[in-house]
Amino acid sequence: MPAPEPAQRARVVVLLSGAGSLCAALLAAADEPGYPAAVVAVGSDRDAAGLEQARSRGIATFSCPLGDHADRAAWDRALAAAIAGHRPDLVVSAGFMKVLGPAVLAAFPGRIVNTHPALLPAFPGAHAVRDALAAGVPVTGSTVHVVDAGVDTGPVLAQQEVPVRPGDDEAALHERIKTVERQLLVETVARLVTSEENPDE
């Protein structure tokens, strides 16, 4: 039985900046019958490799580089418009390496979620795995949270622990976190779009 058409499922726009392993996990989940969300577009702040995953499936893509705009506020407005053109029910920031601005946040209040490779509020920011190793914690993990005006400060939706092993380096630990992160994102998106609750409540 084929998966339902996107019109019958929640519409998701994914934002990424790199290879898109998190996006790939969502795309694979959306191929499964019964998954309640469909990725209707994938956007980036550059010509990221992850966009090709969407193009190869006939899914719309868009690129909104910061350097193409007069300033960050203009970029923020352009990104909000690009996302809005795909009428998303949910926006997923999946390895998107820019902080989302007030225009995007206002356009999709409480409907943007992000993944983070640590157990927030511990180790926010771009170097979470490195920071966890430097702190010597025995456990770190992955968080899915609502995006707000801060950096990794929004309400937590889901978390899963990942033990730190003796001899772990940043690459090895991050790879194990990514494995957990993909599944946690897929499960959290499904839960959010089948709930009548706003994720920010």
From TrEMBL:
Gene3D superfamilies: Formyl transferase, N-terminal domain. GO terms for molecular function: phosphoribosylglycinamide formyltransferase activity. HAMAP family: PurN (MF_01930). It catalyses: N(1)-(5-phospho-beta-D-ribosyl)glycinamide + (6R)-10-formyltetrahydrofolate = N(2)-formyl-N(1)-(5-phospho-beta-D-ribosyl)glycinamide + (6S)-5,6,7,8-tetrahydrofolate + H(+). The gene is purN. This is Phosphoribosylglycinamide formyltransferase. SUPFAM superfamilies: Formyltransferase. Keywords: Purine biosynthesis, Signal, Transferase. Belongs to the GART family. One of its GO terms (cellular component) is cytosol. PANTHER family: PHOSPHORIBOSYLGLYCINAMIDE FORMYLTRANSFERASE. Pathway: Purine metabolism; IMP biosynthesis via de novo pathway; N(2)-formyl-N(1)-(5-phospho-D-ribosyl)glycinamide from N(1)-(5-phospho-D-ribosyl)glycinamide (10-formyl THF route): step 1/1. Residues 11-189 form the Formyl transferase N-terminal domain. NCBIfam families: PurN (TIGR00639). GO terms for biological process: 'de novo' IMP biosynthetic process. InterPro entries: Formyl_transf_N, Formyl_transf_N_sf, GART, GART_AS. The record marks 152 as: Raises pKa of active site His. Its EC number is 2.1.2.2.
